[in-house]
Write a structure and sequence with these properties.
With about 280 residues, the protein is of the alpha/beta class. It has 9 helices and 13 strands. Bound molecules: zinc ion (2 copies). One zinc ion binds near residues 34, 35, 38, 46 and 49.
Length: about 280
Amino acid sequence: VPGHQVTGEVVETGTAVDRLKPGARVGVGWIFAACGTCPYCRSGRENLCPEFKATGRDAHGGYAEYLAVDEDFALPLPDNVNPVQAAPLLCAGAVGYRAFRQSGIGEHDVLGLSGFGASAQLLLKTAVRRFPDLSLYVFARNPAAREYARSLGAAWTGDFHDTPPALCNAIIDTTPVWKPIVDLLPRLSPGGRFVINAIRKTNADKNALSSLSYEHHLWMEKSVTSVANVTRSDITQFLELAASSGVVPELTTYSLSEANQALLAVHQGGLQEAQVLVV
Ligand SMILES: [Zn+2]
Ligand SMILES: [Zn+2]
């Protein structure tokens, strides 16, 4: 059963469960389980655990009436959060937030966003409200996406080859292609981090990388890193951040029997809307 952004109410608990009571409102994100004992788990990087289990991939997910999960991975929802609105925050939002943490960005810095899909949009919405002194630059090919970014509070928007008014302290890349690395590494300030928040990169434009120059792209301690999976603290921190800054995703709800319609809507790709099954 797929579905890795799940919210609901506890209806029944096992005998060893002591923290959660029936009626508790919880969310289950992409992280379904991790071992808890390996060096990664013990250093707060359970997203890298070799035993990492993903909801809807390694275990049944949320397109169902009920879901069984270890209580440690059923994360309490903040009181002021509506469970329907919280669901779309659990993956795209939480992974975007992980990228934000990985970027090492400070509250008065310039953060660049390369690509402006769902994850980047949630990140921008949250960041502009929560960190008003942060300057956000959005690089996107699509003029409509750039306009949307400006309406949400981006300080500057442009195409990948455009020159922003200042260097970025970090850039979060959510595109599936390589060209942004070539175009945007020169836009990083010394010591800046380029964080790739994408599950995979296409091979189609891999040749673009041959134009990388050590001097222009990496010199001065610039680094390139990726984001994989999420930790529970990414999810809970992002939910709290979203709740306290009033971020709610735009969404359409469907009943479980309308699931195929919902999947079709995702496939046809409205840029800005999440589709939520309400069971
Ligand atoms: Zn582990
Ligand atoms: Zn996801």
